[in-house]
Amino acid sequence: MNKDPLFFFRAQPSRFLPGLMGLLLLAGPGAAGPAVTRDLPGDTLPALMAADREGLLPLPAPNLDRLEEAVREHLLAAREDFLALRDDPDITTLALGEAYGELGRIYHAHRLYDAAEPCYRNAERLLEKDTRWPYLLGYLYQEQARLEEAAREYRVTLARYPNYTPAQLRLAQALLGTNRTDEAIGLLEAASSITEFRGAAAFWLGKAALTEGRHAKAVEWLQLAAREQPEASRIHYPLAMAYRGLGDVEAARRHLKLRGDREPVIPDPMIEELSALLTGARTRQYHAMRAIWQHQFDVAAKEFQAIVELDPSDTPARISLGRCLYLLDDKERAEQELVLALEQEPENDKAHYFLGRLLWEQGREEAAMGHFRAALDANPSHAGAQFFLADGLMRQGDFEQAARHFGKVTEALPEDLTARQRQIMALIAMGRQGHEAALARIEEVLSIYPDDMVSTQQLARILAASPDANARDGERALALALALFDRENSIENAELVAMAYAELGQFEQAVAYQQSAIDALASVGYQYGGYELIERLQAKLTRYRENRAYRIP
Model confidence at 365, in pLDDT bands (50, 70, 90)? Predict the structure, then answer.
């Protein structure tokens, strides 16, 4: 069970970004694509409109009511800048095409597809040699699952720039989606020869082979994709299906456990540049959250970084930035961001909790427990802080308080089996006074999870060795212990069998099982459990040889 709460966000106003004219002045006409028109004649708008007024689509006015104020202001400013350019009597075809395209990119970045489409189409018409606008229009159609139209625009792109590999890959995706597999495979095989695109091409080649029932070839391609882009967790589901088709059930199960939502990445500067046009904290939060769901913590960190740069007082975004940095193993920066968050909001339970987790994993347990306590002062129902504080108390030997805090976790999260098991461990460690409560908790767990080995081991241990005679039941302890040993021939289960036999006074059998546990430990090396374990096993063996049963301290 993941004890980390979901990231929480709140929208903050973003800074006003430059309008469209500023983008054109900064970027220049060639900034966003692999092949940019530079040699068109400088026809003025009146000449163009007189020649073909009907060829240009009208500029739509998208509904911006649901957008946050900063985003709305930015988009309105971009539209006003465009209109000023469009209405300039000296505008050239090149400048007008750029203006339509750039406004389309801004609308596209903010998912205003109906407004972006006519902008791209006008730019494509005006700039007949430029690859950017048909390519981005194809991508817009693909995002909307309009695959026939997407394929058409990708073909236009490749007619203008035949070697643009991202367009080849995306055309192949659209073709696969419309059952034109042969043409798609040809494009993908060509792309697979280029190192940076090999992983994505292999993924789609593998999926195509799987669709056609060529399971061995699918495995070959998908394994290549996994080697090229090991972080792309979506590879594992079709790979599992391919293995299942080959009859390799074990491999299929292994890859099913690894499946996720992150697709192989197509290196694609034109699409990546769309993200740079996003404005507003809410939009960036949406993209950050989507990245987190896909385990793309590097992408999420960049989005949260942008949010805190827009508004340094946005504490929730700073906490989420710290958490992402932590998951990226950048512990130093993560700690800095979380400390800053606590300077802004000293009683923020999430900041205390995440900082506590970071310190805990660095071995700074006292400092970590201080933050867990602070998190609980601010929010007593914080299950994650309860769990780790209880774990720390266990290590300090305060078993009663540990049991109490683990109990708080189970009250909040009844399905948390780990917390239930740890509470039982704490109750057992309390000695006689905790065993009655431990038995009750174990029975609760086994009524829900009847096959849980840990809880069954705990029950057998109390029944065989509790200092409370009323809690002991040697016959039941032996039955449980033998069933556990049959299920898993382990040192711990052999110990339990010996313990139960000793409780029943059958010391010869107890000695035999205890000796087998010691022999097993010696065979794997004493480093398996350290010298403390061997001393514990030897001490019990001595008791059984002296015809004395073992009792939990």
Answer: very high
64 DSSP 8-state letter: -
Q: The tokens 């400390």 sit on which residue?
A: 339
Residue 489 burial (10 A CB sphere; 0-12, 13-18, 19+): exposed
The predicted-structure confidence for 447-468, as pLDDT tens digits, reads as follows 888 888 988 998 999 999 998 8
Structure tokens at 148: 């026939």
Could you give the residue ranges of the DSSP H alpha helices within 87-235?
93-109, 113-126, 132-143, 147-160, 165-177, 181-191, 198-211, 215-228
**Closest residue by Cα to residue 174 from 196, 192, 156:** 156
Neighbour count for residue 197 (Cβ, 10 Å):
23
Q: 190 in a domain, yes or no?
A: no
Could you tell me if 129 and 69 are in contact, meaning their C-beta atoms sit under 8 angstroms apart? no
| Tokens linked to 518 | 């010691």
Q: Is the separation of the CB atoms in 388 and 355 below 8 Å?
A: no
Give the Cβ contact number of residue 296 at 10 Å: 20
Distance separating alpha carbons of residues 383 and 407, to the nearest angstrom:
10
Tell whether pTM > 0.70: no
The per-residue pLDDT for range 232-283, each reduced to its tens digit, is 999 999 999 999 999 999 999 999 999 888 889 999 989 988 876 776 666 6
Report the distance separating Cα 400 and Cα 433, nearest Å.
10
Which band of pLDDT confidence, cut at 50, 70 and 90, is reported for residue 42?
Answer: very low
Q: How far apart are CA 65 and CA 88, in angstroms?
A: 29
**Interval 477-531: pLDDT, tens:** 999 999 999 999 888 999 999 999 999 999 999 999 999 988 888 776 655 556 6
Give the count of beta carbons closer than 10 Å to the beta carbon of residue 256.
15
Report which residue type is found at 315.
Answer: T
**Number of domains composing the chain:** 1
Three-state secondary structure call for residue 552: coil
Tracing tokens 């309390």 back to the chain, one arrives at 430
Domain for residue 70, yes or no? yes
116 lies in a domain? Answer: yes
**Helices in 247-330 by DSSP H: which ranges?**
249-258, 269-275, 281-293, 297-310, 315-327
Average pLDDT, the chain: 85
The DSSP letter of residue 231 is: T
CATH code where residue 78 lies: 1.25.40.10
What is the token pair recorded at 127? 């700039």
Give Rg (Cα) of the chain: 32
The rounded distance, in Å, linking the Cα atoms of 133 and 128 is: 9
DSSP per-residue codes, 507-534? HHHHHHHHHHHHHHHHHH-GGGTHHHHH
Domain encompassing residue 89? 18-162
Q: What is the mean pLDDT of residues 403-414?
A: 90
114 in a domain, yes or no? yes
Confidence label for 208 from pLDDT (cuts 50, 70 and 90)? very high
Tokens (6 digits) for 484: 């556990």
